[in-house]
Description:
single chain; alpha/beta; 5-stranded mixed β-sheet; 7 helices; 5 strands; 13% strand; globular
Amino acid sequence: MPPRKGKRVSLARKGKVQNKVKIKLVAVCEGQNTEPDFIDDFRLAKGNGLVDVRAIRAAGVPLTIVDKAIAEKKALAKVARRSADPIDRNFEVWAVFDRDEHPHIPAAFDKAYANGIKIAYSNPCFELWPMLHIRNQGAEIHRHDLQRALAIELPCYDADGAKVVKLADLPNNYDEAKRRAEALGRRHEEVGAPKANPYTDVYNLFDAIIENGKK
């Protein structure tokens, strides 16, 4: 018998199974487009509907970003205390920012660590991460030069406009990009200059999406 008019039909009975979210991630981003758009692309590609990611755009300078991340974490903790749903207690808050020419970077790191905020950091800028999908970048480079170089390698990227990097436009080269980023980090540590230009550890955020997106 067909369902009565107005009666809702269970998706499960029609063979459609919805994935249940495993974790909530909040990424408080410096950029208006570059970081949040890329993070959202990555969630759709790798999260398998199991990772709830909310990217907050144009959140300010690094210390302001960390302050907003702390406020987000407190709000999530408040919801968790009142909720019976275990997913509400499984969350991470990330501060996503660049070196650029910002002051107070060490203070931003210290405040984030003291309040349990995770950091996805790039020096000089986020564009280093997509560049590492294409080629290595071993020499120090100014952010504007890096953005122009990325525009040459990736013509769909507009260095003077919205600065949007689409995941689909990059080579499927995540593991190699991560290896290159890790090698840069090790090299800086060896000479006593941690997180020096060029450096990025944004793969830690993307790894969290990949790991929690596994079915």
